[in-house]
Amino acid sequence: MAVGAGLGYPRNPTPAAVTAVSSVTTPEQDLQLQRRLQQDSIQLAGKTIYLNPFLYWRRFDANTDRWLREPGQLEEDQIHANRTRFYPELAWDLLDDEERAIKDGAVEMFLKSLELISTFNPELSAGHLLEVERKMAVTKKRAFERWVERSLRRRERAEAKERRRFDRERLLRAWLEWASLDVTRQALLPLAAALVLAVGGGWWWGSQQNCRQVIVNPGISTPLQR
Fold this sequence. Notes:
Blueprint: H1 15-22, H2 27-39, E1 41-44, E2 47-50, H3 62-69, H4 76-81, H5 83-86, H6 97-120, H7 126-139, H8 141-179, H9 182-211
Antiparallel strand pairs: 1-2
């Protein structure tokens, strides 16, 4: 069974797939899988509704996948208006910037997930969607926060890498532009000539030292007087 890169759960947990996994896992692992699937689904009107948005992975296109995975796809006003809907216990003004960004991303994940669930399950009534939202608020909150935190860190690393690349290119362009100036060439010409002379003089002096005959004064010992 393929494992999704979303919230770490199976992408297509059909009964046959669950049976196949159960045959190769230990009872403890099977129990954990069953518990995870129970947290990811809810029974409504005789139908299993998946709460994990990544379980609908096989049913949406690349644009929807990118829309779901990348934080910041919804308007800030829409996210701020739904803060207390999913986090009624939080004092948002007391959160630091990093924690507030993670919580806002989780609110965005809630809104996106509910939109996907209602799209792929159009037969659900308003009451059914309310039950879905209530269970999601209990079981998916921490999972959404972890997902958003990892996504924001990946984005920060990518942005830092892009900034470093841009700084290197800008420095190289500045050096090339400086080297192409007439004033720069006029200033570098005497320095280059002096460098050539210094290297040539050093080579000539070294060759003279190697060719010079070294006179060795043999030691003459006088006979010892008795």
